[in-house]
DNA sequence: TGCGAAACTGGCCGGGTGGCCAGGACAAGG
DNA sequence: CCTTGTCCTGGCCACCCGGCCAGTTTCGCA
């Protein structure tokens, strides 16, 4: 395989909005050194629509709750979280409780699933 | 604000490979009707690198384990899973144990996080 | 200066969870 | 026939989790 790195970047289009996809295809079609991928072709990069699941304002989580949430997503137990944040287990449980509340979750597993779904955390 | 929908598609670049990102920025910079997003700016579409996290063969989960995993991701307790699958809580715990094992997880929360990360489940 | 929000801590307790032991049924393949 | 793998079940037990009660400090804002 010769590495013609200066030639032909292959871009795939994965956009739901047909109008936007159309305009992009038109604009990018006329660019030298760049090509749109054929259906099924292996592309070097993909253009996706702006993920719409980010915005429910935030659900207003406090900084500390975000800290706890992140560690929960790592699979950390309350004890581990307490140690890592330098606080007591009781406080961790307090924050976890608030999280379950705000995220409408029935347990910590449900909480990280919900949070990931709405883009609050990146797992 | 006039809605010049025929003007200026804003593209964000989220590519790990610096060389590729560079070339894309250069190529796209000279295209009329198209602009690269400023850091933090809301873009109408995003260009991402080919997602490499799909392939670990599967980690070979049995059908039953997938059933249990799916319900775990819903935040279901062992008791709920048992009821839904028509099996005993002991059996559920057995399958959960296998899951923790195969997914290298320390707990059920960690398990669904890992599974979601490697595309085994879609949360 | 008082008041609320956020963060933090404690104890208590019922139920859930995960690790360990043991076993059985049933199909596929040596 | 016997082994292997998957699926299923039981009991036991230490620990963790989440919900409840109570309290503290610190901060910004009215």
Give me the secondary-structure topology.
The structure is a homodimer of 123-residue chains.
Chain A: E1 9-14, H1 18-29, E2 34-36, E3 45-49, H2 63-73, H3 78-85, H4 89-103, H5 108-117
Parallel strand pairs in A: 1-2, 1-3
The first copy, chain A, binds a DNA duplex (30 and 30 nucleotides) through residues 62-64, 77-79, 87-91, 93-97, 100, 107-108.
Structure description:
The structure is a homodimer of 123-residue chains. Chain A has 123 residues and is α/β, with parallel strands linked by helices. Chain A folds into two domains: 47 residues, no CATH class; 56 residues, Orthogonal Bundle (Arc Repressor Mutant, subunit A). A three-stranded parallel beta sheet of chain A has the order 2-1-3, covered by helices on one side. In chain A, strand 1, helix 1 and strand 2 form a beta-alpha-beta unit. The longest helix of chain A is centred in the C-terminal third of the chain and has 15 residues. The first copy, chain A, is elongated and about 60 Å long. Chains A and B meet through helix 1, strand 3 and helix 5 of A and helix 1, strand 3 and helix 5 of B. Chain A binds a DNA duplex (30 and 30 nucleotides) through helix 4.
């Amino acid at each position: 395989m010769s590495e013609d790195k200066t030639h032909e970047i292959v871009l795939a289009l994965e956009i739901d909005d047909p109008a936007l996809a159309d305009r992009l295809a038109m604009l990018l079609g006329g660019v030298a050194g760049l090509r749109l991928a054929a259906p099924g072709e292996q592309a070097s990069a993909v253009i996706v629509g702006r993920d719409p699941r980010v915005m429910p304002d935030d659900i207003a989580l406090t900084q500390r709750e975000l800290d706890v949430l992140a560690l929960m997503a790592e699979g950390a137990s309350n004890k581990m979280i307490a140690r890592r944040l330098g606080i007591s287990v009781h406080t961790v449980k307090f924050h976890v409780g608030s999280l379950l509340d705000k995220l409408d979750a029935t347990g910590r597993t449900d909480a990280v699933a919900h949070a990931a779904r709405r883009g609050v955390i990146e797992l």
